[in-house]
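Journal club side-thread
Mid-discussion, someone asked how the predicted structure for our own chain would compare to the paper's figures. Pasting it here so we can look after the session.
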Amino acid sequence: LVPEGIEGQVPYKGTAQAVIHQLVGGLRAAMGYTGNRTVAEMRRNCRFVKITGAGLAESHVHDVQITRESPNYRIG
């Protein structure tokens, strides 16, 4: 989170349409993984779980050489 009154910038990520397309794709994938057909079902049935930085690193793909970077999956 950014404190109130702080100005900043983030790198350009493309058009709003492209960014929203990626977000919707992630939401659809999550709904498929969790077996929910609607956002309302997902809100009732799912919860976020905090993990450590080490857990996050371990949950990423490892021991694989990436040949083409995905637009929505960057490490580092």
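Post-session note: The chain has a mean pLDDT of 85.
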